[in-house]
Amino acid sequence: MNEEHVKKILLSLVEPNRKFGRDVVPSSVKGWRFEDVDEEQHRQPVCSWTGVTCDPVGGEITGLNIGNGLYVKSLLGLDADADGEDKNGREESPNVGEKGARDLEDAVSFTKQRQRANAVARREAVTVGPSFPTQLGKLETLRFLSLSNNRIQGTIPLSVLKLPNLAIFDVSSNDLVGEFPHLKSESLRILDLSKNRLSGRLDEELFGHPDVGRYTAPYLFTLVKFDISHNAFEGTIPLSGTSGFYKPDGSRHLSEESLQQLQYFDVGYNLFSGTIPNNIGNFQKLSGLFLEHNNFVGTIPKSIYRGSGRGANPLPLVQLFLQQNQLSGTIHEGLATLPNLKEIYVDGNKFTGKVPSSLCDLELNGQFLEDKSAASRCDGISCPVNSASREGVAPCRRCPNDNGVHRYLGQHNNECRDDGLNQEEILDLFYNETHGDEWNDATYAWEIGEPACERKGVQCNGNGAVTNITLPSLGLRGPIIPELSYLTRLRTLDLRHNELTGFLPSDLRFINLENLDIRGTRLSGVVPPLLCIKEQVNGNGVGPQDVDFNRIYSCDNFACPRGTYSSIGRAIIPQGADDPGVECAPCFDSDAALYLGSDKCTDVTIAGMQLRKEDIMQDAVKSISALVLVAGVVGYALAKVKGRRRAVLDGNCRDGKDEHEGIILSTPARRLSDDSSFDDEDSDDSYERSGNSFGSPRLLQRWISPTTRSPLDDGDDWTASDSVGDRGRRQAQELREFSRSRSVLPDVI
């Protein structure tokens, strides 16, 4: 591609400048002018233009660095928005390692609807930004592309995603929408999509699938930094026990090299749920793991401090950010064996017990703590049980009453109650959070402060303690509040067929529930693992000795997972050789059962009957076999009748037979496979290997150099625990989250 052609492509990015009829580009910027505006600057060699880097040998353009607001402010002459300047009017430079306080729309513990509404409202007050320049897809020699902090709107063009040689792709701090973009480059090392409005679920094949290879996901073999923080991604991290890098016997899959270069993994401030995958322990070079402000449940995986596979070592983690999730269990002393650990944040979760003394002795979190001496104390990692602070770490204050209410480590000020909640207060809170004044049966209306045992749907024992809450099909909306776990005598919680949202609280493990029914609700995520081992609930942990142990203790006994269903929304343990029990069956389409505890699939309904995947496939096979048999009989009969004209008809019959078989055999087969495989006509071309080198190490070092500033948004900060029912709003100035900055930078040299 000659220089004039490259100039034409680059100038198409600043085409709006033509309407001004004057030079809007500041004098400090070299090049980037049309000939009729500034002929001298236009004639400058393109490799000398500001932000442009070329190969010193071949002269091809290899880098375009118009990030940090350079594109929108200097090249287009647009005013910077509120995100682009600080209070002194200076340009803000985004940091590939900053944790920063988050923009209002990025406070991902909002529900998605409220999150997007606030994002739109905020942007109505600023100048509309440019769309993503599709012309960049023509610069196939690009190895580095930075468009960060330019208010770019819309989606990332397919032509850009297909650039074959990209090593660094940074589009952070823009206004991009859409789902996770799949880049085709085999040499991708840094992917930064942070601080946008991207959404949706991550594909199951994105990380560590057993069939992954250099032609199915080439970037997995070179990726050093993966940052999708401050967006609205949801669902689970697609790293499960069956899609990792190790087989059950400890041997490697063919994907053993994938993600082995990964040093920086950031999915913080999103809407992710589920558990932290054990397979994170496979990332043997990982130094920064940032999972904060999501809705993860379960315990901290042992693989983080043990590694995975045979002969594995603890991860070389320097920073581990887990704060503001729904994690439970205890903080294991094995974390003290992480050899390089400098910062660990666990506040705002549901951890119990104490911080291990071996972890306290490491003098962690010193850069963040107000009281530097706390780095050598346990409260420098987390406030102890029955205490709280502004950030969940030192300086901590004792809660007024040690009444068992403050059972978790690392609580924040608004979680430290002056006294415990009585039954009436808990039920009042539940009533308000589930929009009780809108329940569809007025006879169930509760009066605030009304005695608990006099409320319809509530039963008590002889001592006046609440034992049963039965409120099916009443139109309840909102969360199952964790405060129900303070009803210590509660045995039955029946909330089936309501519009409940949020997550099933792991706090329920603290009471001796016997019956839990959440079928037909809209709860998301997974059943918390520590709840899955709770005995007696729905018969969990109780069954004959000859029954599979994995069915006796199973999360399915609480609720069918997403994508599966049963007639009662959960499994039932078999009680004898002749009792099959009930199992959660997969739906034909896993998206058909979007929530926990589905009692039906919504994807395939024929003549009033719902069919699951196995039924449809079996019937399809039978139908195809029958059609083949009929076709054979008919063909044989026609051949006999028209035998005298065989010589003429042979060719026609063969053509007709091929067409007929295509209809009978091929079409149903394609229909069945469409849901389980991905067919891309351009797959071979998309993953064509590139032989280009990576580029100048010095230039790459300059491109990823960190800045020291972290922005602080003046809006409200909504934490993960607040997202359920939009409760517990906290002002951004009450937190010092921005001080917990990322100091880990990937080594791309």
Detailed description of the structure:
With 749 residues, the protein is of the alpha/beta class. Helix content is 17%, strand content 13%. It has a ten-stranded mixed sheet with strand order 1-2-3-5-7-9-11-13-15-17, with no helix packed on it. Helix 11 runs antiparallel to helix 12. The longest helix is centred in the last third of the chain and has 29 residues, at 613-641. It starts with a helix and ends in an 18-residue tail after the last strand.
Task: Find the structural class using helix and strand composition.
Answer: alpha/beta
The average pLDDT value, as a whole number, equals 76
Strand percentage, roughly? 5-15%
**Shape from CA axes?**
globular
Task: Give me a quick take on this structure.
The protein has 749 residues and is an alpha/beta fold.
Tag the structure with descriptive keywords.
single chain; alpha/beta; 8-stranded parallel beta sheet; 13% strand; globular
List the helices and strands and how they pair.
Layout: H1 3-11, H2 39-42, E1 52-54, E2 61-65, H3 70-75, H4 112-123, E3 144-146, E4 153-154, H5 158-161, E5 168-170, E6 175-178, E7 190-192, E8 197-201, E9 225-227, E10 232-235, E11 264-266, E12 271-275, E13 288-290, E14 295-298, H6 303-306, E15 319-321, E16 326-329, E17 343-345, E18 350-351, H7 357-360, E19 387-389, E20 397-398, E21 411-412, H8 423-433, E22 458-460, E23 466-470, E24 477-478, E25 492-494, E26 499-500, E27 515-517, H9 529-532, H10 549-552, E28 564-565, E29 585-586, E30 605-606, E31 609-610, H11 613-641, H12 646-673, H13 683-686, H14 697-703, E32 716-717, E33 730-731
Parallel strand pairs: 2-3, 3-5, 4-6, 5-7, 6-8, 7-9, 8-10, 9-11, 10-12, 11-13, 12-14, 13-15, 14-16, 15-17, 16-18, 19-21, 23-25, 24-26, 25-27
Antiparallel strand pairs: 1-2, 19-20, 22-23, 28-29, 30-31, 32-33
